[in-house]
Amino acid sequence: MAKITYKHPNGTVTVVDVTAPNTVMRGAKLNDVDGIEAQCGGSAQCGTCHVYIDEANTLPLPEMDSVEDDVLYGTACPRQDSSRLSCQLPVSDALDGLLVHLPEAQS
After folding, report:
1. Measured CA distances, 34 to 25, 88, 107 (Å)
2. pTM above 0.90, yes or no
3. Of the residues 18, 40, 54, 73, which has the maximum number of CB atoms within 10 A of its CB?
């Protein structure tokens, strides 16, 4: 289990416990965290689970594949160096303490 922190653009913070094999996206949906639409259900096709990983992050994240990379160019809010699709971030104990920033809009 990992504690994942979702920070909304207005500064509101939601901390939830997420168990493997869920993803950061699924953890948000299961815990009613607003700000992640996930219209495609987590198949890396819509980009509506776009998040920004906190710049101070030192936790091990999987490498971005070419599909995720392509989808991030079509997100509602600008892509940044810290952008990821939360559906492509599997949760494990190693992600305990992860902080993600939610964008202003998802679609």
Report:
1. 11, 18, 13
2. yes
3. 18
pLDDT digits (tens, 9 = 90+) for 24-54: 999 999 999 999 999 999 999 999 999 999 9
Backbone φ and ψ for 70, nearest 5 degrees, come out as -65, -45
Burial profile 59-79: b = 16 or more Cβ within 10 angstroms, e = fewer: eebeeeeeebeebbeebeeeb
Enter the tokens of residue 98. Answer: 């992860």
CB-neighbour burial class of residue 5 (10 A; exposed 0-12, middle 13-18, buried 19+): middle
CA 33-34-35 angle, 5° bins: 120
